[in-house]
Amino acid sequence: MVPAMFRYWKTILLLIPGCLWLLAGCAPNTRHKVLRTVFDGVPPPRPAAATSPAATPAPTDQAGTADPASLRPTGSVHQPYADRECNSCHGTRLSNQLILPPDQLCQECHDPAEFSAPWLHGPVAGGGCSSCHLPHRSEKAHLLRNGGDNFCLDCHDPRQGLMDPDSPAHRQPNGYDCLDCHTAHGGATRFLLKSGRAS
Q1: Which end of the chain has less neighbouring CB within 10 Å, N or C?
Q2: Averaged pLDDT, 112-139
């Protein structure tokens, strides 16, 4: 009896070069779609030289001057991801497996001394950077998962006793930015208040 693999050897011989031809011959965007279907976290294709930001003129207003809003970068990208250095965090380019447990990985590049304060934000203390930050890219600054004044309220819900709703700072009519008074990662005071702020 012939093993199943050898019964279909002609089909297999035709499929292998066909798959290689498809991946090598298709446009970068098509190749990206195919790879993204199979693998998670595939970086976007690099722009062609003609469509790179340096080659594309900035939008202008009617007077012909560049629109300042169009010149501002939007979002943020993790530098190893931007440089396509996937194995800085992942075992191989074809694997999503991390080289270290998530609670240790970020400290390989980000200085742990930055996060060694007497009082630490819960996710920082537990190595849960991904509670607030995305690993590859974000539409928000600092790779934040969310943005805006209410970002901290995703976890620090006043109805659950995770912040003092009676504090005058928490009752601003136009809203507030938590980072006006608090540090994000750690601090010298219990509620991560910046120096000079009342407790």
Answers
A1: N
A2: 88
